């Protein structure tokens, strides 16, 4: 692997000028099942490998160091940058697979990132170059605060602009400053290694060419360091033209030095002319130019190659066998170590009346289960109900906490997203898009498909699907980075899931309100970012350094201000235009104030219930003798959905036996957008004997039980008698007949 990386390094154009130093990264992202990390890279100082990064284990492994290099860079910051690079690979993979019609199998992407330090100590150019299937897809250069871009990605101008804006911000504010600082640190630690000078051994050789009857003249320089060298072939004192020369590639030796060979083919006729050939070499290790005269060898030119070839073949067989054994064991251990936590579902079957049809709606609800595979089937008289009669059925994530944010009178567009790491039958990344509380879209991150929900007309003009998929890829990448931080701290095995809520608000005035991004893991909010009136507030519990947090926040704030909020508000306005009848409808609440006995305390419960209302914003207040009851005395108050798309809310007050004797007056007051005036409901309650109204009902039920019980007993007795009277024995019947005769 190391040899291959070194050859790849040398096959790239040398972008750093002679005398300067450079730090560069050769990264690989693999999509598909392989025994290697999905993401990894080698970091190099000039041509000296200094670091290897494994994206699967999030480990940084030094290479070739003789002293500690912990002070060269902040490891947390470098891992964060590594996550950004991996995330950008995910975006590139999305574009590539989209262009290749969902290519199956293993796909690999490569990236070269290079920053240069001039001899003056000033930063030089920075280059990021991506490749896929052997071809460069795009290249971004940053030099003297100017960017140039060349690319072949088949994306729209809008999507490309988002990509470039992200990339340029990262290069200017994050990548280049960190790269230059790290480069200087490595130069201080490795100066003896990268500044050493080793003289080349140079030979000029002539060998017979059996095909043409002429010969080959080869100029070979080997064993030199650093890699920059000038090797020139002269014929009778004049440089041989480049188009006559073959070779000239810079190749590595096993000891960290380099070699270069240039060849000239000489015809039989030219050979008879007895030209003078010279190989001229200049190198940093040489005080003067080195000229070598021709050495001619008619022997067997390839005899010395045979032992080396046999050695290489033997090594290939040995390492191939070891790799095959390791891969087999690795797969076995992976399967045995995998475990998945589970949580039982809470299942309810509910029936609600439907005011529109006069019938009812039966809903089967399963919630709180994990993993996410579940079979939920409605049966009618033991037979499964046909799919075309069933509505809903979407798998939705649970958001932790009750304090989801809704704003009375305003409208909001929000995303509830789930990122899953581990083996499951569901997409790694997916989300539901909602207008207020109406689902309008489902996104499958595996197939890159946007699936409308509940639309009665086409909604293609609401948003640019290419831009939304690009933003979705960035959300996917951000979720991956967040989970990487969490998993890096916990090293959790099995399936992991992180949830995200992203919400933008449109005020009644038509101006953007606040935008909120909240992430949750294992039932707790990890962090929350709010953006309102061009000001950001952040609250988080992530255990990261201040430097890493600053990088994360700077990037997140830039994205919210320049990409996410503008797109979200535009999409929200588009959906409001298409779904205005659906989200602006008003349904009045049905309100009741109920008192029930509390057997435990000898007192009672007073409950104010409002149900069947839409939209969801409602004010429900309990009054005692004209004064609002304090919040700390109230239980309930949660907004709950009904099966027909409306809502309900219940607030309860516990009344002690002593307070009950005081005969207070209780009132439930309701305000809602569907009501012209405040609705006040008084308690249906007799203060003298609070539960006498129950007695007639109880007596009636008891009487009915007695009547029906008596009737059942009589019927049963008569039914038994009739069975006995109708029974007869054949033998007895025959005897009676004979006697009569």
Beginning-to-end CA distance, first to last residue: 116 Å
- Give the count of helical stretches: 11
The CATH topology of the largest domain comes to Murine Class I Major Histocompatibility Complex, H2-DB, Chain A, domain 1
Catalogue the unreliable spans: 1-17, 296-305, 331-342, 397-408, 685-694, 726-741
CATH class category name of the largest domain: Alpha Beta
- What is the number of domains? 5
Total E-strand runs: 37
Shape: elongated
Write out the strand line-up for the largest beta sheet, numbering strands in chain order. Answer: 4-3-2-1-5-6-7-8
CATH architecture of the largest domain: 2-Layer Sandwich
Rg on CA atoms, Å: 40 Å
Relevant CATH superfamily of the largest domain: MHC class I-like antigen recognition-like
Strand content: 35-45%
Short overview:
By secondary structure, this protein is α+β, with helices and mostly antiparallel strands. The protein has five domains: 2-194, MHC class I-like antigen recognition-like (Murine Class I Major Histocompatibility Complex, H2-DB, Chain A, domain 1, 2-Layer Sandwich); 201-305, Immunoglobulins (Immunoglobulin-like, Sandwich); 344-386, no CATH class; 394-583, MHC class I-like antigen recognition-like (Murine Class I Major Histocompatibility Complex, H2-DB, Chain A, domain 1), CATH 3.30.500; 590-682, Sandwich (Immunoglobulin-like), CATH 2.60.40. Helix 2 (75-99) packs antiparallel against helix 7 and helix 3 (157-189) packs antiparallel against helix 8 (546-583).
């Amino acid at each position: 692997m190391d040899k291959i990386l070194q050859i790849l390094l040398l096959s790239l154009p040398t972008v750093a000028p002679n005398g300067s130093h450079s730090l560069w990264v050769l990264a690989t992202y693999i999509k598909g099942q392989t025994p290697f990390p999905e993401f990894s890279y080698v970091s190099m100082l000039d041509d000296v490998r200094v670091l290897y990064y494994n994206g699967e284990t999030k480990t940084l492994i030094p290479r070739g160091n003789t002293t500690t290099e912990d002070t060269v860079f902040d490891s947390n910051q470098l891992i964060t940058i590594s996550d950004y690079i991996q995330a950008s690979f995910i975006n590139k993979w999305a574009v590539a697979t989209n262009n290749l019609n969902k290519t199956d199998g293993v796909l690999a992407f490569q990236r070269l990132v290079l920053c240069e330090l001039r001899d003056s100590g000033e930063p030089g150019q920075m280059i990021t170059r991506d490749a896929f299937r052997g071809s460069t897809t795009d290249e971004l250069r940053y030099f003297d605060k100017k960017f140039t871009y060349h690319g072949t990605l088949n994306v729209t101008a809008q999507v490309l602009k988002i990509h470039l804006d992200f990339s340029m911000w990262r290069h200017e504010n994050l990548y280049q400053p960190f790269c230059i600082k790290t480069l200087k640190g490595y130069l201080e630690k490795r100066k003896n290694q990268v500044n050493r000078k080793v003289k080349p051994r140079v030979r000029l050789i002539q060998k017979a060419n059996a095909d043409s009857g002429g010969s080959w003249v080869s100029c070979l320089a080997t064993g030199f360091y650093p890699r920059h060298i000038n090797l020139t072939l002269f014929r009778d004192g004049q440089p041989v033209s480049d188009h006559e020369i073959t070779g000239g590639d810079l190749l590595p030796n096993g000891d960290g030095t380099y070699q270069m060979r240039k060849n000239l083919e000489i015809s039989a006729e030219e050979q008879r002319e007895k030209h003078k050939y010279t190989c001229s070499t200049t190198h940093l290790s040489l005080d003067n130019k080195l000229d070598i005269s021709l050495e001619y060898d008619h022997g067997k030119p390839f005899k010395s190659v045979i032992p080396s070839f046999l050695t290489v073949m033997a090594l290939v067989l040995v390492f191939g066998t070891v790799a095959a054994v390791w891969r087999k064991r690795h797969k076995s251990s992976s399967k045995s170590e995998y475990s998945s936590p589970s949580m039982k579902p809470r299942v309810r079957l509910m029936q609600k009346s439907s005011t529109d049809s006069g019938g009812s709606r039966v809903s089967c609800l399963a919630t709180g289960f994990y993993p996410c595979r579940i079979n939920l089937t409605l049966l009618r008289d033991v037979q499964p109900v046909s799919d075309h009669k069933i509505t809903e059925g979407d798998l939705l994530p649970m958001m932790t906490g009750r304090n989801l944010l809704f704003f009375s009178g305003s409208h909001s567009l929000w995303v509830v997203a789930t990122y899953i790491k581990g083996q499951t039958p569901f997409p790694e990344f997916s989300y539901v898009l909602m207008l207020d509380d109406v689902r309008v879209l489902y996104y499958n991150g595996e197939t890159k498909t946007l699936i409308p929900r509940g639309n009665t007309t086409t909604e293609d003009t609401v948003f640019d699907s290419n831009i939304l998929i690009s933003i979705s890829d960035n959300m996917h990448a951000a979720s991956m980075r967040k989970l990487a931080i969490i998993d890096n701290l916990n090293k959790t095995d099995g399936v992991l899931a992180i949830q995200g809520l992203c919400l933008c608000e449109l005020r009644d005035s038509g101006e953007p309100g606040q935008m909120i991004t909240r992430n949750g893991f294992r039932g707790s909010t990890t962090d929350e970012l709010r953006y309102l009136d061009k000001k950001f507030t952040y609250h988080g519990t992530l255990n990261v350094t201040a430097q890493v947090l600053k990088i994360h926040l700077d990037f997140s704030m830039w994205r919210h201000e320049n990409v996410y909020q503008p797109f979200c508000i535009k999409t929200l306005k588009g959906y409001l235009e298409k779904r205005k009848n659906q989200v602006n409808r008003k349904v009045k609440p049905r309100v009741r104030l109920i008192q029930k006995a509390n057997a435990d305390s000898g007192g009672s419960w007073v409950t104010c219930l409002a149900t069947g209302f839409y939209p969801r914003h409602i004010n429900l207040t309990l009054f005692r003798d004209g004064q609002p009851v304090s919040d700390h005395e109230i239980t309930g108050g949660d907004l709950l959905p009904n099966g027909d798309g409306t809502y309900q809310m219940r607030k309860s007050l516990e009344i002690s036996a002593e307070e009950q004797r005081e005969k207070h007056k209780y009132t439930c007051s309701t305000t809602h957008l569907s009501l012209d005036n405040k609705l006040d409901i008084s308690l249906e309650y007799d203060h003298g004997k609070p539960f006498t109204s129950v007695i007639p009902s109880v007596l009636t039920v008891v009487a009915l039980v007695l009547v029906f019980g008596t009737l059942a007993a009589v019927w049963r007795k008569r039914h038994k008698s009739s069975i006995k009277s109708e029974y007869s024995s054949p033998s007895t019947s025959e005897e009676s007949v004979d006697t009569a005769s």
